Amino acid sequence: MSDKAVDQFSFLDRLSDGYYLATEGIYGEVEDIIQDALDDLKKFDEYMGFLRDNS
């Protein structure tokens, strides 16, 4: 996978880390992380187009 493709999916790491921190009470709110995840999933068609173009 190219560096650009990796950057496109780095949101998964951010969401995972954010969810962990929120559920442990370290930083942030779970509701905010869930909303971020939903917002990113709305971009799914954009990501699929990117993958199709690079396959």
How does this model look, in words?
The chain is elongated. It contains 4 helices and no strands. It starts with a helix and ends with a helix. It has one domain. It has 55 residues and is mainly alpha-helical. The model has no long low-confidence stretch (mean pLDDT 80).
> How many angstroms does the end-to-end distance come to?
9 Å
Shape: elongated
What composes the largest sheet?
none
Any idea what the radius of gyration is?
Answer: 13 Å
**H/E series:** HHHH
DSSP strand (E) fraction? under 5%
Q: Residue-averaged pLDDT, rounded?
A: 80
Broad structural category: mainly alpha
Number of helices: 4
Would you count the extended β strands for me?
Answer: 0
Share of helix, binned:
over 70%
Give the tally of structural domains: 1
Poorly predicted spans: none
Short synopsis of the structure:
Helices cover 75% and strands 0% of the residues. With 55 residues, it is mainly α. The chain has one domain (3-53).
